[in-house]
Amino acid sequence: MMTKEKAQKIAEKIFALTKADGVAISINGGSSSNLRFARNTVTTSGTSNDTSISISVTFGKKTGRYSFNQFDDKSLQEAVQRAEELAKLAPEDPEYMPPLGPQTYPDVKAYYLSTADVSPEYRANVAKDCIELAAAKNLIAAGFVENSAGFSFFANNKGLTADHTSSSIDYSITARTQDGSGSGWASSGHNDVTKFDGRKASVRAIEKASMSVNPKAVEPGKYAVVLEPQAVMDLLSSFAFRFDARSADEGRSFFAEAGGKNKIGQKLFPDFVNITTDPAYPNAPGFPWSEDGLPSRKTVWIENGILKNLRYSRYWAERQGKEPVPFASNVVMQGGDASVDDLIASTKQGILVTRFWYIRDVDPKTMLLTGLTRDGTFWIENGEIAYPIKNFRFNESPVAMLKNTEMMSRVERMQFAGSVNLIPALKVKEFTFSSLSDAV
Amino acid sequence: MNRRDFIKIAAASGAMLIVPKPFGHGQDTAPQFSDPDVKKLADEALNTAKMSGASYADIRINRYRNQSISTREKRVISISNNENFGFGIRVLVDSTWGFAASSNVTKDEVARIAKEAVLIAKANRFLQKEPVQLAPVPPYQDVWKTPIKINPFDIPISEKVALLLRINEEALKVKGASFCSSFMQIAMEYKFFASTEGSYIEQELYRMWPAFTVTAVNKETGKFETHSSYNEPIGKGYECVDEKFLLDDARLAAEEAVMKHSAKSVEPGKRDLILHPTNLWLTIHESVGHPTELDRALGYEANYAGTSFLTLDKLGKLKFGSDIVNLIADKNQKDALATCAYDDEGVKTREWYLIKDGMFVDYQTIREQAHSLGHKESHGCSYADSWSSIPFQRMPNVSLQPGKKKLSFNDLIADTEDAIMVKGRGSYSIDQQRYNFQFGGQTFWEIKKGKINQMLKDVAYQAKTTEFWNSCDAICSDEEYYLGGSFSDGKGEPGQSNSVSHGCCPARFRQINILNTGRKV
Fold first, then answer.
1. ipTM over 0.90
2. What is the pLDDT of residues A138-170, one digit of tens each?
3. pLDDT by residue (tens digit) across A174-226?
């Protein structure tokens, strides 16, 4: 993995190679190694290393970008020339923002050498353990274990530099019955391999597979649901990473209001809904910077059910007379005191959802989404899991999900698409399932 | 070999490679590779792998070049060029796979990485319960390139920018159109493949996609509607850019986006459906392309993309669709995104039936899966999206064959009493075994008594795959053939992207479930 010192030397070389008014470089790379298994046997396994550099040069208000993954002097020189060529051909950008000077960044601890150093044998043993547990229950396991280490660096010719290292081990597993009538899924991941528990995920997926055999069909309709944290994350990701002021002010998002206004200040959800971003949150590291090296910071999006903030790009903030608000680099949701079992126990009749699959936007005005339940869907009767049920297609909005939330569990740590988030399970009084699926 | 020299030769911008027989495919004479040193580098990798204990090895030395331009209204948001270069080595040790990859393309690194791939295979072999069996493939030495007429990287940036800004301008001339964003994506893959079985294959593939989205905001109601272009990505050079089509399409999209505000909200229920090919290609992709992937049917994708309802016991027995439904997989299809001469394990590409006269007759395969079907050879569906990715089974171009009876789109409308016609790619979702799907579109039109009547909105159609294809009672003839496609189709862990095309003609489906997606939250 590239060191900060080497990245700085590369930055200095590049700054010396061009007379452009503005130069910004971004270096991202690292290593990742993985193992896939399926049919209770290893399938593919590999390792790779790559680091790329993106060079952005600006003459006046004309910017060009070029990125490449070779770092010898000649390649760097050619890369600068190509970025310059693009900048000279580009039209002036009316939304150009001058580069930021030196900044202070949040202290984000996301790198652990022990995770970066995970061996092929370690990964093979995670798979072996799972396959043995599954085979003992006459189940078929398929899974994926990957460890990675990454380095990110950003610098400009106005003295700004930022760097970040991260590591992660990620594991997910699906256990299926031999006849394909039952399926269970679970995942586990951490930046620090010493806190990673693959066996726990394997056992959970295997239990769910055994519990989900021969599901009964329940008529589609509106039901009370208990959504496990993964299911909540699946829906919330379409919501919490879309807090954007510009699209709202332009009238083209759920957060838009008539007359070119947005919904900031409106009470959208029950009092107990609180959603923030905090890159330095213990146990849920985010990413330290946003566009142009703007430092990430703790941002309250929803407080006591009220929309408090939207993301403002540097340009949009200046135009609207606001302070820039960086991207959400993680989602930290406030949970309740209950367990998932408590949520189930409080439900007279309803549906327990392990996770959702193939979620797509249907209508951006209402944030209506469609998708399906998968790998563990159960009927709840009188506070207990009664029996497995067939998977449903849903048509529902995460906005309606939060509005209809009645109870929350304690948060769980969820790694999702490169971000680490704290998410509770939710009990939602009404959730719309539109059709049945035969898929298991 | 000096790495920089190779980079210099391979990277010479504009004219990327010297390819003596650009359209050659299986020529008898020895091919001339763009840089003979690449072959030496490959031999180093293969020899080291064999010496380290591999019974089979292959190497892919690849360079990728991407250009992306994005604009909104009168502004260029970004212009970026991206290149990426490296190699990946795949080995079999005791019939167990190992793979390693690096961006440091030197002789020493190639040897080191070959050994690392062998070590990974050795670490995993104790887990192996199904030894890998590769279907035989003849050794090929060949050079192939997408038969482009105009290299898109040779066209000046200023020309591309000007076109995109003209698209935005044209859309915004329409009263009520508020915003227009447009982009152009251009991709080139250079791949050199070599295996211990004697193949040396160099290929250079191109694809590109100019497209846009118009938004019409009604400031009084606070509502907005969007409309994306009907233009699809394609495996061609810059000759695919038809300015008149794009400008007409931009104007039409803007007009239709405005029209959506006052369109009638659909009455849900069972309705006949006419799918325009701009919509139908995606339904083919999801409901035919993915379930006929053999790796899914066998369970290799169970933890991510899912399995398939087309289990092996249904092969040759399941009536997938009505008698007029024929679907062909074809990695040689002209102008298509997944087209190449050889797949990423050196298998010569071909075409074959997946669905014939409505019957499910075959899968997509790679070398290690062919034996599961009793096949003697692979269908050539191996692909990796990077030198750093492990090749696995990816979708070839899958296309619905035109109807045999002469039937134009207008004839089909005229023959339809009461239906909804759907145009353009919209929302799409399907379950992990590919039974239950839901699709939207860009525009929806009521068909009454043989005529296109009025625009509808809030429409989605939901169906079970086999019920849907068995309800197909009309497919237009070949003069209506249209090639749609996806620039990026995701599958695998870690996730990989594949570009794939789907050709089709307008078709009619009887009594499909229509949803009204309008909501208040």
1. yes
2. 999 999 999 999 999 999 999 999 999 999 999
3. 999 999 999 999 999 999 999 999 999 999 999 999 999 999 999 999 999 99
- Best A34, A47, A181, A433 member to test B by mutation, with max B CBs in 10 Å, is A47
Record: contact B304-A358, CB cut-off 8 A: no
Non-local CB neighbours of B84 within 8 Å, separated by 6+ positions: A50, A52, A68, A69, B63, B64, B103, B386, B387
How many CB atoms sit inside 10 A of residue B56's CB?
Answer: 20
Residues of chain A with CATH 3.30.2290.10: 4-209
The answer to whether A149 and A165 are in contact (CB under 8 A) is: yes
Do B292 and B307 contact (CB within 8 A), yes or no?
no
Are residues A372 and B436, on separate chains, in Cβ contact within 8 Å? yes
Q: Please, where are the H alpha helices in A152-299? A: 198-211, 229-240, 245-249
**CA separation for the pair B212, B216 (Å, rounded):** 14
Considering the entire predicted model, what is its pTM? 0.95
Contact A170, A187 (CB under 8 A): yes
Burial class, B228, CB count within 10 angstroms (exposed 0-12 / middle 13-18 / buried 19+) = middle
Is cis: bond before A106, omega within 30 of 0?
Answer: no
What does the alpha-carbon distance between residue A94 and residue A315 come to, in Å, rounded to a whole number? 10
Residues 178-197 of B with CB under 8 A from A: 178-179
Substitution target from B260, B304, B493 for chain A, most A beta carbons within 10 A: B493
Handedness of CA A152, A156, A157, A159 (dihedral sign): negative
Q: Which helix (H) or strand (E) holds A158?
A: none
Q: Which residue of B has its CA nearest to A31?
A: B102
Q: Report the gap between the CA of A23 and the closest CA in chain B (Å).
A: 14
Instruction: Quote the mean pLDDT of chain B.
Output: 94
B512 at interface of A, judged by CB pairs closer than 8 A? no
Whether A266 has its CB under 8 Å from any CB of chain B: the answer is no
B429/A174 CB distance under 8 A: no
Nearest CA in chain B to A263: B222
What number is the average pLDDT over the span B383-401?
Answer: 98
Rg over alpha carbons for chain B, rounded to the nearest Å, is 24
Which domains can be identified in chain B, with CATH numbers? 3-260 (3.30.2290.10), 264-516 (no CATH)
SS3 breakdown of chain B: % helix, strand, coil, rounded to 5?
Answer: 25, 35, 40
- Give bridge partners of residue B272 from the DSSP assignment: B419
Range in A227-241, B294-308, B336-350 the model is least confident about: A227-241
pLDDT band at B166 (very low <50, low <70, confident <90, very high): very high
Helix and strand tally (H, E) in chain B? 9, 25
Chain A residue numbers with beta carbons less than 8 Å from the beta carbon of B104 are 49
The total number of residues written for chain B in this structure: 521
Per-residue pLDDT at A372 exceeds 70: yes
Check: CB of residue A333 under 8 Å from CB of residue A236. Answer: yes
The helix (H) or strand (E) run that includes residue B89 is strand B75-93
**CATH top-level class of A4-209:** alpha beta
Give the three-class secondary structure for A428.
strand
**Min Cα–Cα distance to chain B from A178, Å:** 11
Residue of A nearest to B12 (CA): A78
The pair of structure tokens assigned to B326 is 């024929």
Packing angle of the helix pair B243-260, B157-172 (nearest 10 deg):
30
- Residue whose C-alpha is closest to residue B423's, from B256, B220, B198: B256
In sequence order, the 6+-apart residues with CB closer than 8 A to the CB of B99 are A44, A45, A46, A47, B88, B89, B90, B91, B117, B120, B390
Query: Closest partner residue to B517 among A66, A68, A363, by Cβ?
Result: A363
